[in-house]
């Protein structure tokens, strides 16, 4: 036991960076996928689909690895980063099943698959529970289809090693056995993911929550598991950083992008609400999560470049406050951007391409050497362009069900959205005046001064509100009176306290007014 504890201490004390462990895990995962081409008899034509190889399998293994590591860290009282460093080398175990299956079958292979239990009706609880309590995934005489001899050996080795690790850290036999039981439960649920997916979607269909067109890929569900594990990992790794980052996420702007997305979605339906019966609700959820994840990535990138300005504008931001360091912020930006693109990809290639363009624009907007944020008017145009892209995202998703594409989108909507949101974007610069001036970011307040820009930006907002009615062809004169009234409210808010929260609330209420007249 002394030598085991010495090995654990050696692994936990490693000074390797996050990217070393990340690439090590990916290497084993991709190698496992490649080996299954030769050993897994359920693979059609001995070829794994690209979506499975590049997304489904890596996300499944990564989520499982994170959950087991989080569980072990909780049981041992060890920090999650030290636990991950110990667990990472044993990812090599995942390449054993295809090799062992080839050996045992003399080169034929075996059917590796999810545990897919009988599901003729939704209450298929007993087969699931029976397999669980009989340790069906652990013994040859009771193992379900999909669990091969190689996987049995892998599972036994994995749980023996986990037991040794927990016991070496705690010296508590019962504690270690309880951990192994819980780890087995986690593994069993991950093995059941395909069955759980089927039962969930069937239940939602029976309850008429989903329609017949709603279904999700395994990649989508694995990505949800990965996101849940990643959030729990971030919280366990850096609780203060987790709280500060999400508190300072500028949620009002996320709501803006979701609003314009659904505006495009509404326009794409062209009042043909019967098309809603053909909308894949899981893909719609994926696009919503893609927008949120993309914004998280954009905020992380922006924080990396705005440390000097944020020290004056918002000292409570995570990098300025010191609760997150730049290396960790880079990881957040990368992972959130990756998650955003993969969520969008579940709806289709075109949506992933649009999200990738939005992320690229946010990169060019914030970071050197380009940093479009510094250029007058261009910084507002970038906000207008990203808002337009979100409208296009919603329009295309709804419109494809009734045969609408970009060529069908009225030019007045495209031009109007670009102009309206470009003019309205100036409002975000008033509150950031001190930091922007110190950081040589040439916004309207920096160029004209805060006093004159107060009147100038109020006029721009009035023009944008009126243009919304013009481009949407709202002919009611009462609308323009309301637009003027909301503009006066904006002027009052800007003049009194310049709090962006109140300005956004005013904007949200005005959007509801637009929908009332547009409907």
Describe the protein's architecture and organization.
The chain is mainly α. It has 24 helices and no strands. It has helices spanning 2-12, 18-39, 50-76, 80-87, 96-104, 125-133, 149-170, 173-191, 193-206, 218-237, 239-247, 251-269, 281-305, 307-313, 318-321, 326-345, 349-366, 378-399, 411-424, 433-438, 444-448, 450-471, 477-496, 500-518. The longest helix is centred in the N-terminal third of the chain and has 27 residues, at 50-76. The mean pLDDT is 87.
What topology emerges from the helices and strands here?
Blueprint: H1 2-12, H2 18-39, H3 50-76, H4 80-87, H5 96-104, H6 125-133, H7 149-170, H8 173-191, H9 193-206, H10 218-237, H11 239-247, H12 251-269, H13 281-305, H14 307-313, H15 318-321, H16 326-345, H17 349-366, H18 378-399, H19 411-424, H20 433-438, H21 444-448, H22 450-471, H23 477-496, H24 500-518
Helix pairs in contact: 2-3, 2-5, 3-4, 3-8, 3-10, 5-7, 7-8, 10-11, 12-18, 13-16, 13-17, 16-17, 17-18, 18-19, 19-22, 22-23, 23-24
Report a brief summary of the structure.
The protein has 519 residues and is mainly α.
């Amino acid at each position: 036991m002394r030598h085991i504890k010495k090995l654990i201490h050696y692994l936990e004390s490693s000074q390797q960076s996050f990217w070393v462990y990340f690439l090590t895990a990916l290497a084993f995962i991709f190698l496992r996928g490649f080996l299954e081409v030769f050993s897994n008899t359920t693979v059609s034509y001995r070829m794994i689909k690209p979506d499975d190889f590049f997304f489904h399998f890596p996300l499944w293994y990564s989520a499982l690895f994170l959950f087991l590591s989080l569980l072990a860290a909780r049981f041992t009282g060890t920090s999650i980063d030290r636990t991950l460093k110990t667990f990472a080398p044993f990812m090599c175990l995942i390449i054993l099943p295809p090799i062992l299956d080839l050996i045992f079958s003399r080169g034929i292979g075996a059917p590796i698959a999810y545990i897919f239990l009988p599901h003729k009706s939704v209450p298929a609880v007993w087969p699931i529970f029976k397999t669980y309590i009989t340790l069906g995934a652990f013994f040859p005489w009771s193992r379900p289809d999909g669990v091969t001899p190689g996987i049995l050996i892998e599972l036994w080795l994995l749980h023996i090693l986990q037991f040794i690790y927990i016991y070496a850290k705690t010296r508590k036999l019962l504690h270690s056995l309880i951990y192994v039981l819980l780890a087995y439960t986690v593994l069993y649920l991950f093995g059941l993911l395909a069955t759980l997916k089927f039962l969930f979607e069937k239940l939602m269909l029976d309850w008429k929550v989903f329609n017949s067109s709603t279904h999700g890929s395994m990649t989508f569900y694995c990505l949800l598991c990965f996101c849940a594990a990643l959030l729990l990992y971030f919280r366990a790794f850096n609780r203060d950083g987790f709280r500060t980052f999400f508190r300072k996420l500028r949620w009002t702007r996320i709501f803006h992008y979701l609003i314009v997305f659904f505006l495009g979605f509404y326009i794409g339906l062209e009042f043909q609400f019967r098309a809603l019966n053909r909308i894949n609700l899981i893909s719609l959820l994926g696009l919503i999560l893609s927008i949120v994840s993309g914004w998280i990535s954009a905020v992380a990138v922006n924080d990396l470049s705005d440390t000097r300005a944020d020290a004056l504008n918002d000292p409570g931001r995570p990098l300025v406050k010191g609760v997150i360091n730049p290396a960790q912020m880079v990881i957040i930006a990368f992972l959130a951007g990756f998650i955003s693109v993969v969520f969008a990809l579940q709806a289709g290639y075109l949506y992933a391409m649009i999200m990738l363009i939005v992320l690229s624009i946010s990169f060019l907007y914030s970071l050197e050497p380009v940093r479009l944020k510094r250029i007058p008017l261009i910084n507002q145009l970038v906000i207008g362009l990203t808002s337009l892209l979100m409208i296009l995202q919603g329009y295309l998703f709804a419109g494809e069900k009734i045969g609408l594409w970009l060529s069908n989108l009225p030019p007045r909507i495209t031009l109007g959205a670009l102009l309206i949101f470009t003019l309205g974007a100036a409002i975000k610069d008033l509150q950031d005046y001190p930091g922007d001036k110190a950081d040589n970011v040439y916004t309207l307040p920096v160029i004209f001064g805060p006093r004159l820009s107060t009147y100038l930006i109020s006029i721009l907002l009035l023009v944008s509100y009126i243009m919304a009615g013009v481009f949407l062809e709202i002919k009611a004169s009462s609308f323009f009176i309301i637009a003027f009234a909301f503009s006066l409210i904006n002027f009052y808010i800007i003049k009194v306290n310049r709090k962006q929260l109140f300005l956004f609330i005013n904007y949200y209420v005005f959007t509801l007014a637009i929908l009332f007249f547009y409907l």
